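call fold(seq) -> tokens
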Amino acid sequence: MKDIQRQDLEIISRHSNIDKPGIAKIFTDEIYNTRETWQHFLRLFYITLGIGFTVSGIIFFFAYNWADLNKFVKIGLTELLIVATTCVVLFAKLSKTIRNIILTGAAALVGALFAVYGQIYQTGANAYDFFLGWTVFIALWVFISGFAPLWLLFLLLVNTTFYFYSQQVAKDWSPVFICTVLFLLNASAVIAAVLVSKFKKDVEVPKWFLNIVSLAAITFATIGMVLGISIPDSPSFPFLIGMVVIIYALGIWYSWTEKAVFYFAVIPFSIIIIISAIMLKNSLDEGTILLLGIFIIVSITLVIKNLLTLQKKWKNEK
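ret:
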């Protein structure tokens, strides 16, 4: 049996002669998580929680004892922790998943090291070069680890670096251009991850990673389109329109071929927001607002109805 659900078992039990022990066995084999599954989940959960609390404790330790610590002690302790965690990753006989979790904690400690250095020498902890240095120095770990949470941290740092650069250095960049670059950056990451998962079978790209990065890309695209509609004569707006059309079409095509409902949900909602912005741009009278309300209610209802239909259809095809 594949992808059997509770509802399927209820139908089977009503219209077949399978007895209760047989139904209970199917529940145990196909529905319920086994003891080993729970143990594996709890082991990874507690390890992740422990490393997260450890990194948080280190940061709070420096924050609370900042005035009493020598600057060499501050930097030395952080470097020692990074070296120690990296040695554990390299030499300890642990599973690959646990090593990657520890490596993610070490990547967070790299940020703590740059923050400590920035506070000591007043380089500016919120400057773009702080995030740039953090990004560059964990890049090798990101590329060799093949670990989705570390990829997500890296993408977050890249986005943050670019945003602070646009705010602190390239102050003449328009908001539409910034959103365009962020949209293309995250969309390229999604496309690259999909291609890697297709052509490199040993690399597993989880769906949650694709969904989070795709949601970020679509969010930047939607914001950029709304700003482009409201800001006249933006030079990068026509380019953004073209890229949105192409990448949204690719997203719908990928969603149809892979039977992924997620893109059929977020892309139409983004289009609804963009059309609503166009309607508000043209007029703000009572009639337009009433028409806009009707359009939003009808369009969202149609999107949800089509999503339910597709989900039911694809579920039966599996």
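The radius of gyration is 25 Å.
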